[in-house]
Amino acid sequence: MSNENQEPVRVTGSTFTLFMSFVRSVDHVSFVMIVICMAMMAVLVAAQVFFRYALSSSIDSADELSRLFFVWAMFLAIPHGLKAGIHVGIDVLVSRLEDNIRIKLSRLMSLFGAMLMGIVFVMTISVIGDKWQELMPTIEITAAVYYIAVLIATGHAFLHLLVLAWGGPTIWTETEA
Prior knowledge:
By secondary structure, this protein is mostly helical. Helix content is 71%, strand content 0%.
């Protein structure tokens, strides 16, 4: 059923190129933040184990901070999963469609996904406002910091879904090859 000889639709233009460059820059910053969060989590857990078993002491905020770093790393990674196409999906019907229909459907679903991410982004702003006064139990930081990760992730995912809606499902593999 697929048309393997059909050329994919190429998206060109300075606006799209600038937008892709911007999203790549956001990706780079996000990758760095993910690495920092994972490294901080690993160092903190290792230090907590050392303190607990070697010094019979404890870092009071270790559990809370390691959880925070983990949550941030996971939420920051979600848009990269969208970019790579490794998000969860059921494609038993879609995989049987012709390539041109599958590409159009993918673009439409990416547009719907971007709209949903936009809604979640706006709603998260409200949640952050509601949680701002609440402090974490062991450190003097607002509990809203967990929701800030959601805000960043939904904004970043929104950008990736716009790229996929605009350029098609293979745009990242085409431009990075």
